[in-house]
Amino acid sequence: MRTVYLAGVGYTKVSEHWDRSLTELAAEAALAAVRDAGVERVDAIYFANAAAEITSHQMGISAIVSEELGLSGVPSVRVECGEASGMAALFQAHAAVSSGLAEVALVVGAEKLSDLMPEEFNTVFSMTLPYETMGFAGVTPTAIAALLYRVYMERYEVPQEFVAQFPALMHRNAKGVPHAQFPFEVKLEDVLSSPPVAPPLRRLECTAPCDGAAAVVLVSEESVGGARSGTVTKLAGVSLRTDYASPFDREDPLHLSSVALSVEEALLRSGIDRDELDVLELHDSFSIMAPLVLESAGFSPKGRSGLELKEGRFELGGELPINTFGGLKARGHPFGASALYQVAELHLQLTGRAGKNQLDRAKSGMAVSTTGFGALSGAAVLIGGDSA
Fold first, then answer.
1. What is the domain extent for residue 108?
2. Which of 182, 198, 233 is the endpoint of a domain?
3. How many whole angstroms from its chain centre is CA 251?
4. Would you place residue 386 in the very low, low, confident or very high pLDDT band (cuts 50, 70, 90)?
5. Residue 184 maps to a domain
6. Residue 196 sits in the same domain as residue 213
7. What's the pTM value of the predicted model, to 2 decimals?
8. DSSP symbol at 12
9. FRET label pair with 52: which of 62, 94, 193, 321, CA 20 to 30 Å apart?
10. Across all residues in the chain, what is the average pLDDT?
């Protein structure tokens, strides 16, 4: 298997793009990534998207995207794995380049969710849950998040503010970030005083519908010389794992085994240990997901991540900064693109291009993405600097 490098990234601002189509957003991000990489060819396109059939009335969307890019004739595949579509597309592209099937692969994720009415958005979001046992009965992700939130607080005897402080951190990190959906600060008291949506879950603990696109360019070791000097990181390990779609079918609903397994496998493939990571981009579609991911992945002891955040461990200047551009909560969560935003933001940190959010030390990082509540999860490790 060949070494795979990430040579360029591109993305749009996460917002409500009323005047732009899904393919226009995808093209903007993709062309920016190609320019950033400095490559002159693309051998394959992997397009991550969760809901084009509903939001854009379009099947075969990957071919439409390749046409928009002026790359008709290039193999173009749409990858759909719900909220983790971007990570799944990255997984497929990595396999193509590492195996020799492609020298240069373009991975694009895009979603347009703000065109949906609230009830339509809830319907789409609920498609991340098993339909026959949950969706059919009207169960929503918001309801599941609230149940897990309550179980978590009761089991570990933690106050609500220990969970609610995660969205506050995300907004602090997103403040002033040009591509963030919500580039402003929200304090803990604002989160706790926001309207309840499904107690104990409050409005400011949930992500909001949005539009956005992100893209990365992967190249082989043989082709890395054609990329721009100083902007390359090594995609050292990528993994995908699955679990029961309903957390209440598992032995422990608070343990996301797909997260644990994918993180462990990505670390094994990359040849680094968990404590060698300098930055972590994690899935925080709801406030409760941040501690569940941190603890399931082994970055915090069970029930202790909130205390560690309070002590500063996950701040920008802490031991393990998380979601340095605001995460899903504040940068935004355009489903199919979210994981690629995570990977692109890691790449910016590792190449010294993170602007005001640049970390003092950032040589390796991990992105963790999931769909629903751990039905499918993926992890990717990037290594920069002299180790790339």
1. 4-116+209-233
2. 233
3. 26
4. low
5. yes
6. no
7. 0.97
8. P
9. 94
10. 96
When computed from its CA atoms, the radius of gyration of the chain, rounded to whole angstroms, is 19
- Assess if residue 305 is contained within a domain: yes
Where helices occur in the chain by DSSP H, the ranges are 22-37, 52-55, 61-68, 85-99, 118-126, 141-156, 160-174, 188-193, 257-270, 289-296, 305-310, 327-330, 335-350
Same domain, 36 and 150: no
Query: Is the Cβ–Cβ distance between 85 and 333 less than 8 Å?
Result: no
Nearest one of 274, 276, 279 to 295, comparing CA atoms: 274
Write the CB contacts of 218 (distance below 8 Å, at least 6 apart in sequence).
Answer: 4, 5, 6, 7, 90, 93, 94, 97, 104, 105, 106, 107, 235
Shared domain for 41 and 170, answered yes or no, is: no
Q: How many residues does the chain have?
A: 388
Cα–Cα dist 73/92, whole Å: 19
Q: Tokens 């051998």, residue?
A: 43
- Does the pLDDT of residue 387 top 90, yes or no? no
- Region 171-197: mean pLDDT is 98
What percent of the chain is predicted at pLDDT more than 90?
95
pLDDT tens digits for range 118-172 = 999 999 999 999 999 999 999 999 999 999 999 999 999 999 999 999 999 999 9
Report CA-CA distances (Å) from 180 to 14, 141, 177, 202, 298: 6, 23, 5, 21, 28
